[in-house]
Amino acid sequence: MNTLSLKGKVALVTGASRGIGAAIAQRLAAEGADVAFSYANSPQRAEAVVGAIEASGVRALAIVADQADPVAVAAMVNTVHAHFGRLDILVNSAGVFATGMIGDPQADLDALARQQAINVGGVVAAVRAAVPLLSDGGRIVSIGTMFASRVPFPGIGDYAASKAAVAAYSRAWARDLGARGITVNTIQPGPINTEMNPETSDVATMVKQMTALGRYGQPEEIAGAVAFLAGPDAAYITGATLNIDGGQNS
What InterPro entries does its record include (predicted)? Predict the structure, then answer.
C-alpha cells in the first residue's frame, strides 16, 4: 500500500529529464511530493517527465538551467520556492562524465573543467541557495558514484574526484545543518542501466562480472533509496554514504 510518505512536501531534482534523475522525480511524485526538476536540453523529454509526475496527482515544474552556472542554479532554486511556496527536499542528480588520463596531452581540459563545474560547483551552488529556503527537517540527497570509493579503470580520476568531493561536502553539511534537523546524504550508484551506460554495451559483460549480483542496477532502484532517505523513516540518517552497486565494492 502506498502511504504517500511525502504528501505535502516539495522536492527539487536537478538533471531529471532522463535516466536516474527522471526515475527519482517520478518516484518522489508517486510518494506524494510536488516535484520541480531542472534540465539542460531536450524540452520534449522534460515534458514527458512533467506528464509522468502529474499522472501521480501532484504538481510539476520543469526549469531549464545550466548546472555549471551558479547564478542560474540559484535562480532555479528561488523559482521553485516562489512557485510552490516551500522547499523540503533537494536531490542533486545532475552530472556529467568526462575522461582523461593525467598527463595526457590529448585530454579535453575544457570538458574536464566543465565536469568539475557541474559535478561539484553545481551541487554547492544548489545547496547554498536552498539552505535558507529549506524547511527545518528537510532533506538533501546527492547522487555520487562508487568510483569515489574505488577507481577500477584508468582515465576517470577527475570524475571520481568530483564525486568524492560531493560525499565529503555532504558529511560536512550534515554537521552544519544538524541543528535544524536537515539530513544530508550521498548515494553512490554502481553500474546503472541508462542511456549513458546501457546494460547492452560492449563492456556490459565485464561490468556485470565485477558485481556480486551479476547484473546492472535499474534507475528505479536508485530512486527507491532516494525516496527512503527523503522520507520520515530516515530522519536519523545523516552524513551517510550509501553504495548501491550490486556489490561491486564488496
Answer: KR_dom, NAD(P)-bd_dom_sf, SDR_fam
The single residue listed with the C-alpha cell 546501457 is: 198
* Helices and strands (H and E) in the chain: how many: 8, 7
Q: How far is CA 190 from the centre of its chain?
A: 13
What is this structure's pTM?
Answer: 0.96
In angstroms, the CA 5 to CA 136 distance is 17
3-class secondary-structure state, position 27: helix
Q: State residue 1's pLDDT score.
A: 46
pLDDT tens by residue, 141-185:
999 999 999 999 899 999 999 999 999 999 999 999 999 999 999
From 164, 188, 18, 191, select the one nearest 94 (Cα to Cα).
Answer: 18
Single out the residue of 91, 74, 185 nearest to residue 132, CA to CA.
Answer: 74
Distance CA 227, CA 66 (A): 25
* Catalytic member of 39, 159, 169, 216: 159
Whether 39 is catalytic: no
**Cα distance between residue 49 and residue 55, in whole Å:** 10
If we measure between CA atoms, which residue out of 220, 243, 244 comes closest to residue 27? 220
Contact at 8 Å (CB) between 62 and 50? yes
DSSP state of 192: B
| pLDDT tens for each residue of 3-33 | 799 999 999 999 999 999 999 999 999 999 9
